Amino acid sequence: MAVTVMNYFDRNLISILIGDIKSEFDLSDGQIGLISGLAFAAVYSFLAIPVARFADRGRRVKVLGASLFLWSIMTSFCGFATGLGTFLLGRFGVGAGEAGGLPTTHALIADYASPRWRSTALSLTAVAGGIGVALAVSLGGYLSGEFGWRAVFWLAGLPGIGLAILVVFTIREPLPMKQRPAENTPVVSKASTFREDASELLGRRTFQLTCMGLCAVSLGVYATNLWTPTLLMRNFSMSAAELGPLYALATAPVFLIGSLAGGLLSDILSRYDKRAPLWIMAAAFLINVPLSLMMFLSTTFELALIAATASALMASVFTGPAFALIQALSGSRLRATGAAFFLLAGNFVGMGLGPFFTGSLSDALEPFVGTESLGIALSIMMIFYLAGTVLFLKSTETLRDDLTNVANAA
Question: Does this model's pTM top 0.85?
Answer without folding.
Answer: no
